[in-house]
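In keeping with the milestone schedule agreed at the kick-off meeting, the structural modelling team has produced records for the first pair of proteins. Each record is given below as a sequence line and a structure-token line. The laboratory manager (R.T.) confirmed that both were archived under the project's standard naming scheme.
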Amino acid sequence: MDLDRITAAAIEIADADGLAGVRMSSVATRLGVSTMALYGYVGSKEDLLIAMADAVVPAPPEPDGAPWREYLTTWTRANRDFLAGHPWLLSGSPAVPPTGPRALRWLDRALAALDGTGLDAGEAINIATALSGYARSSAALAIGLRGAVGEAPPGPVGYAEVLARVLDDRGHPALHAAVHAGAFGPAEQWVEDSDFTFGLDLLLDGVQALIARRSGESA
């Protein structure tokens, strides 16, 4: 037995049952050992959760010479996809910066993509943070619409249909008008790739404008 085996077993439990199912006893049972045997490899459940959060992160996409915008589009989509595939990752606080070597590799690749654009290191980190936040919120939306781990998927009544029933045009006039104009569309459409790309393009358009402004300032 080693830390990798323990972490892998804990990840399997979290993927099936959420973080609530991850206990030192449940991990020990899956491995066929006593609970106390785990403490020779991991000091506490909190330490195990830290190891899980980094171990489940895949390698980031390789740049392969792609322009910064093309690479960050791929980077953000891949970030969303692995988060949506492991809903328990979203249970952690989004305010905690990446600390494990795998998570830090994602940050490193995003910064490398922006190298040579004229942006300083602080701006590049803020951009990576904004894109990570967008990936996280998109993954959370996808998970919320299809149901939490261990729960049945939501019923056929979409969010927009609920809003149409409960909103009035006095308290929320702009939102009321948007809902009745069909702005939201069916709930299942919110997680289509075209909708994800639309929001991502808004962010990247801002990055592109910032790069152009920095280029003009240095000219």
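The second protein of the pair:
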Amino acid sequence: MSPRQTPKPRARQTSEARPYHHGDLRRVLIDAALQLAAEGAEVSVREAARRAAVSPGAPFRHFPNRDALMAAVAEEAQRRFRVEIEAALADAPAADALARFRAFGLAYVRWAMRNPAHFEIVSTGRYFAHGSSAELTRDNAELIALTERMLAEAAAQGLLRPADLKRILIAGRALIYGFARMNLDGHFPRWGVEEDEIEHMAEEVIDLFIAGITKS
């Protein structure tokens, strides 16, 4: 065999040279970070990489720092929240603005109760500065506009007591967010509300609020 025909020894493949085995690294890292947050663990790019079983340097092509990762996590949590909201509104009577407002409020509270880590990420600045995510800012503005439209429709239908719609909107937000926050912070047992009663209590509280703004 001539020298040109002599096969060259194959280079030894290191773990760094192996092709990445996940189909979507970005998605896997977001899911890993969501899981870490749900467990109450510290979230970092390197810890997400460890949880995803990839090399420590692999995630940085997608997320240069923790803030970038947490922004993506918040955007994913918000997307899942929007799916719940849209499903609830799809089941509500299209012509009944207050029924839609009620469905929105219940969907918000239920989602927050069933996804406490996601709720914490999208509702507080504990993990990253929310203003750094244009998508999250835009999505929140759309949700506020949606609730404003529902209340404006209810007022146009003559269903509401005379009041400033902005104040009603803020009161409704305070009620729904506050209820979800009380649940997350574990306040209800001291008020004598058992865990299996909380969702029903949410319905009653939202109905009480709607009764207070509705023209009798």
